[in-house]
Task: inverse folding
């Protein structure tokens, strides 16, 4: 679980310049120094721990949490952590309609898969040089935009977003579909648009890495707790089945004994 030392070392307390703040963030601001707002890390820890428990519970229930972060200092980190736990992600650019027009997105993913099939079975070599080049460029573009969601068969249950100001389209799509949003809130953000906020710096690389790491660990913990619960259920089920078999065997033995006794009486 995150500590005050972790937050300080990663610069989570540094907000934006005071002139760029959103007044709705006032309750999360501790003070200002040299025209920079300083975030109240006591509140950050409190919200962090609450969100951690929410994510862990959601993960234990098998819910899908999508990672989103497309700005330069976030993209690689988002991709790295999302791939490590096999969750959908967007790290390059959010395409309008990625959630609200998911059917069209799935068609684009299918086009990507068809091009890959043509490569694997050699059909692409039958095309002209120009046609082949066009397809390969199309594949590269689709992979860049949709590579992180190509295995996503349904809409996510929750979204973890780095920089809700930059990713405002993703936030609006999620809110319109009732998908819960988890996000660090810098001092320029609107907390009303985030279901599970964590006040903190969403610009510094180390801060972004810390947020991603903690959310990832919460997802892993949730999965492991679910696995333990499943094992307990399976064990109880096995015990119940064994008991049923024993009871059935006992009933058969008793029935056989009754039949034997009846036969003996007939002989006598």
Result:
């Amino acid at each position: 679980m995150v500590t005050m030392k972790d937050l300080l070392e990663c610069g989570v307390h540094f907000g934006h310049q005071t002139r760029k703040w959103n007044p709705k963030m006032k309750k999360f601001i501790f003070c200002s120094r040299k025209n920079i707002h300083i975030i109240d890390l006591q509140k950050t820890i409190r919200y962090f721990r609450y969100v951690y428990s929410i994510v862990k519970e959601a993960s234990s229930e098998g819910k899908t949490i999508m990672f989103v972060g497309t700005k330069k200092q976030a993209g690689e980190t988002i991709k790295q952590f999302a791939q490590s736990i096999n969750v959908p992600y967007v790290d390059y650019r959010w395409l309008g309609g990625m959630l609200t027009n998911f059917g069209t997105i799935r068609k684009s993913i299918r086009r990507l898969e068809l091009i890959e099939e043509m490569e694997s079975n050699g059909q692409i070599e039958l095309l002209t040089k120009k046609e082949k080049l066009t397809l390969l460029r199309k594949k590269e573009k689709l992979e860049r935009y949709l590579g992180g969601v190509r295995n996503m068969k349904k809409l996510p249950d929750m979204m973890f977003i780095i920089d809700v100001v930059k990713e405002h389209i993703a936030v609006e799509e999620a809110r319109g579909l009732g998908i819960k949003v988890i996000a660090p809130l810098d001092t320029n953000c609107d907390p009303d648009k985030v279901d599970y906020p964590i006040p903190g710096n969403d610009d510094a690389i180390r801060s972004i890495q810390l947020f991603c790491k903690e959310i990832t660990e919460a997802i892993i913990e949730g999965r492991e707790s679910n696995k333990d619960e499943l094992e307990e259920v399976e064990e109880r089920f096995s015990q119940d089945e064994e008991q049923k078999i024993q009871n059935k065997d006992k009933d058969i033995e008793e029935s056989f004994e009754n039949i034997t006794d009846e036969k003996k009486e007939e002989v006598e």
Q: What stands out?
A: The domain at 4-99+155-227 is CATH 3.40.50.10490 (Rossmann fold). Residues 75 and 91 are 4 Å apart (CA to CA). The chain has two domains: 4-99+155-227, 101-153. The chain has a mean pLDDT of 90.
